[in-house]
Amino acid sequence: MDILVVGGAGAMGDWFVGFFRERGWSVDVSDPDADESVPVERAGEYDVVVVAVPIEATADVIEDVVTYMDDGLLMDVTSVKREPVEAMRQAPDGVEILGTHPMFGPSVRSMRGQTVILVRERNGSVSERVVETFRDAGANVQEATAREHDEMMSVVQGLTHFSLISIGGALERLDFEVEESRRFMSPVYEIVLDFVGRVLDQNPELYAEIQSNQPVGEVHDALIRSAEELRASVEEDDIDGFVDRMLDAARGYGDTKSALRRSDKLIEANVRGYEELHASVGEERVLRHVYSGNVHVGVVRDVRGRKVSLDEDGETVELKTENVELLSRDEAREWKEESLSRQERDVSAAFPATLDEDVLEDVTASSHDDVLGSEVIDVYDGKAVPDGWTSYTVRLELLEDGEVDGAVEAVAETLEGMGGEVR
């Protein structure tokens, strides 16, 4: 399919450009900030037009786009739904309409496990294909009306963003040393503090637009009233009143036990990652920076406090533990296979009996992590080997990352362990 992403030079627009291109679809961008921009007047030439512009501009851009479309699919990826969907309804009857809200930001590498909310306004074959593409990518697809979406988002986004930004504002008013406080933090404090920082690191205009374009007035009032009531209980030393309000909140929340278990898993995941880093001292590991995406490969020399030191190509590199992701062994191998150059080496060994070549290839290929493949390229039983013996030469495909000699030695040891004599 041919896709046009209006606003494709922005963070979320660019994410969807990459998403659709990875699936083999032809994608163009209409954006004045793009290196190559298609005029929006050509929107009618595409099977799908995706509007990915700031919230306050979305309705106006949609109203412009619909004047150039007669068929195909028109969809948006905006955090609010009623106004964009209403604007898309102005499109000709032959245009399919799909309101879309990806519940993740552009820092997410994959749609797998992420929630995508859909408002199916005008369904058809093209929109069905896009929805199936989301599902195939592992998305948790949920459907709602535009009104249901915005009312739910007034709490899901409106309340959570408002409260986290308020905590950040309180820390600023207190002139509180956030980094210094990490020396004394509990697991819960660390998680809450990181979520505050996560929100504060985002585009403030986007968060202001979300608050301004959702029905959050009643939600804000409820939060402020609850805070004032708790404050009054504390000021009046009303322990029973504080307890009652907390119990009332727990009853209103519902299944607090499941929330406790889920948050325990989050805490345990943080602890496991840190413990695995400690256990990796002296080993080569692959770390990926969660923000820049840069990958560091080296021997872990030390993990102290909130820093990990790597010996990377003879240089010491220090990284903050909270900024890096430790790739699993399988993930590290996959990254190496995709990113590192390769070379071939041949190893020969003679055996006093004939061997199954498929078995020989499988065994040698699994003898070292950096052996990507092994192929028997020569079988010889001439004068250069003793009578009754057969020599086999295997060609190894190796990752070229400093472990080539070690991988070749490991293969030679494997062959000798099988009763062979390396030639």
UniProtKB/TrEMBL annotation:
SMART domains named among the record's database cross-references: FDX-ACB
Keyword rRNA-binding included in the entry's annotation: no
Keywords for this protein: Oxidoreductase
Annotated Gene3D superfamilies: 6-phosphogluconate dehydrogenase C-terminal like domain, NAD(P)-binding Rossmann-like Domain
InterPro entries according to UniProt: 6-PGluconate_DH-like_C_sf (IPR008927), Fdx_antiC-bd (IPR005121), Fdx_antiC-bd_sf (IPR036690), NAD(P)-bd_dom_sf (IPR036291), PDH_C (IPR046825), PDH_N (IPR046826), Preph/Arog_dehydrog (IPR050812), Prephen_DH (IPR003099)
Pfam families tied to this protein: PDH_C, PDH_N
Gene Ontology terms describing biological process: tyrosine biosynthetic process
Molecular functions per Gene Ontology: NAD+ binding; prephenate dehydrogenase (NAD+) activity; prephenate dehydrogenase (NADP+) activity
Prephenate/arogenate dehydrogenase domain mapped to chain residues: 1-264
PANTHER family xrefs: PREPHENATE DEHYDROGENASE, PREPHENATE DEHYDROGENASE [NADP(+)]
Protein name in the entry: Prephenate dehydrogenase/arogenate dehydrogenase family protein
Originating species: Halorutilus salinus
